[in-house]
Amino acid sequence: MTIAEYLGCQQLRIDAALGRWVPSESTPPKSIHKAMRYSLFAGGKRIRPILCIAAAEAVSDSPDGIESAACTLELIHTYSLIHDDLPALDNDDLRRGLPTCHKVFGEAMAILTGDALLTLAFQVLAQMECPPERKTRLITELAVATGTVDAMIGGQVNDLEGEGKDPDPALLYDIHHAKTGALLRASLRMGGIYAGCDDEQLGWLSSFGEHAGLAFQIVDDVLDVVQPSEALGKTAGKDAEQKKITFPAVYGIERSRQMAEEERIAAHQALRSFDERADRLRDLADLIVQRKT
After folding, report:
1. For residue range 18-39, what is the model confidence (pLDDT) as tens digits?
2. b/e map of 205-225 (b: 16 or more CB within 10 Å)?
3. 252 — alpha (psi -120 to 50), left (phi > 0) or beta?
4. DSSP codes, the chain
5. What are the residues facing 94 on neighbouring strands?
6. CA 92/CA 79 separation, integer angstroms
7. Is residue 68 a contact partner of residue 17, using CB atoms and an 8 Å limit?
8. 88-135: pLDDT as tens digits
9. Nearby residues of 220 by Cβ (< 8 Å), 6 or more positions away
10. How far apart are CA 109 and CA 62, in angstroms?
11. Does the global pTM surpass 0.85?
12. Phi, psi torsion values for 95, nearest 5 degrees
């Protein structure tokens, strides 16, 4: 199976799991379930849940049921995008090539939709079939990665408060290590935990997640500068317009590209103790950097 075929297969698997867990549009109250499904099925690449599945496969030959744990990462990611796009934050009209949730359903419903997706993620983890000890670890992992201390919401706060400040490498790292990196790192860790990894394997997966997550953010920042809105699926040039601290703003385009490649190599090195079962993770690290930068 080629990496493209693997991605397509896993995307279908994740979408099927999301379809089972998210209430149908005909379930009352219909308005919020329609908004939840609109944002979830708007064409996301499913990078985080696919990383979770690939991490589980690196540890175990048959991590049955991993798609339920993996889809919680997409629920959290989509909730964060809905709230990020609101007028009070990034004030964006386009996401995944479609009008943002608040443009279609209104600001109040968009806020509630994000809240609902966040809540559903933990319901899924609580109700899925999994040994109790692992289930508790997975719930903790996702909660910590989503929170305020060196985690997603804390990174969003740093990003918001950093707007208009002079480009600073330390603040840049603090923002993206938390805002993007925490959930990507958790994707790897949750896959490993679900599959029953040992502490040493969890450390390797965490290191891979650190480097792959940083590469992902660097490439994202570069693409915001060099690609049009049509290719991005979101409004291009927003980072510069809002005077955000980004890798191109601090290091320039070419050095940012070099840094992304350095992180890709480091991600590969983090997997050196895994056998060929981790090849999909290696492929994914390559794909993150090979996007049209």
Report:
1. 999 999 999 999 999 999 999 9
2. bebbbbbbbbbbbbbbbbbbb
3. left
4. --HHHHHHHHHHHHHHHHHHHSPPTTSSSHHHHHHHHHHHTS----HHHHHHHHHHHHH-S--TTHHHHHHHHHHHHHHHHHHHTSTTTT--SEETTEE-HHHHH-HHHHHHHHHHHHHHHHHHHHHSS--HHHHHHHHHHHHHHHSSSSSHHHHHHHHHHHTTSPP-HHHHHHHHHHHTHHHHHHHHHHHHHHTT--HHHHHHHHHHHHHHHHHHHHHHHHHHHHS-HHHHTS-TTHHHHTT---HHHHH-HHHHHHHHHHHHHHHHHHTTTS-GGGHHHHHHHHHHHHS--
5. 99
6. 15
7. yes
8. 998 999 998 899 999 999 999 999 999 999 999 999 999 999 999 999
9. 180
10. 40
11. yes
12. -150, 130
Amino acid at 231: A
Q: What is the pLDDT of residue 293?
A: 35
CB atoms within 10 A of CB 83: 22
- The overall average pLDDT reported for the chain is 92
